[in-house]
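Dear colleague,

Thank you for sharing your sequence with our group. We've completed the structure prediction you requested, and as agreed, I am returning the results in plain text so they can be pasted directly into your records. Please verify that the sequence below matches your submission; if there's any discrepancy, let me know and we will rerun it promptly.
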Amino acid sequence: MSTIDRYAIPAGELGWNIPASGSARFSWDYEDGRDRLLSLYEKGKDKQWNAATRIDWSQDVDPFNPLGFPDERLSIYGTPTWEKLSQKNRDELRQHQAAFNWSQFLHGEQGALICSARIVESVPDIDAKFYAATQTIDEARHAELFARFLNEKIGVLYPITPALRSMIDSTLNDSRWDMPFLGMQVLIEGLALASFGSMRDFAGSTLAKQILAYVMQDEARHVAFGRYALRDYYRQLTDAERSEREDFVVEACWLMRDRLRGAEVWDNLGFDVAEAMVAVESSDHMRLYRRMLFSRIVPCIKDIGLWGEKVIGTYEQMGVLDMADVDLTAMGRADEEAAEAFDTAQAGIAARRQQVAETIAAAD
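Please find the predicted structure tokens below.
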């Protein structure tokens, strides 16, 4: 069966063409390099992995609760609408909510794949080209494993949302070499990293937790790449140039804040969409979730120097300004440790299985 046949609502088109913009830049200085980026490049090479073998895909997943989340994480939980739903309807809602969220992750990872390839082409510095090449491989792997989880374990997909599509379109349509960094590395990847973290920490499905932990190990490097590459460059901008990029940040953050409302799910399952949106907006879980989504973005935007009145005012209005001093380096280390803990656990399981097999063989 084709993936196209698994979409819960028509995808509308089989692909999406964005005309290329900007210049392909070559550098003849092969010894020019910043220590931080070259260190990331070394790490990017060392940390490559195979999604088909590092992850135990034989693990069972409940297709009606593929992430193993408690019902309290559904925005309409506890409302009169929720109380009227049959068990079948609740199962269907859990499945489609997970399918919607992970479909956006999948489409976002393909966007990151295209953007990282564009960075290889357009960034002027050889050290950044080297690292972006490793990220391109990372993003292909992420798209592969999200697609596999959706196709094999959930069985339902949703098309890309207009907000995410608009964000990717704006990022790729800009001819300035730094915009794929800002749009994808800092904003889209930063939001994805925070969302992955929330799901990793609360998911009851071991397979989902494992996938998210391993993807986050890569994504932490990608966000660091955006920070290092842009921090020095943005110090050189004129006030007008910096203002243009701050305008982009403000618009993008509002778009991303509303990206995961899931109106498509409510409409597809026959809910009153307006009523469902009221429940989403008033949900304590959604308020906390939206706030958490900016935990990686706000400190990064401050770190790279796009910290003018417009940006500060936007984050104050969103209620996330206090996240400006979050320690991104410490969060990255924690992401690394979470992935390594899964590796240790997997090695322990494999050793026990081998021991049991040897015991059985000896008994025979």
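Summary note from our side: The CA atoms of residues 75 and 280 lie 5 Å apart.

Kind regards,
the structure core
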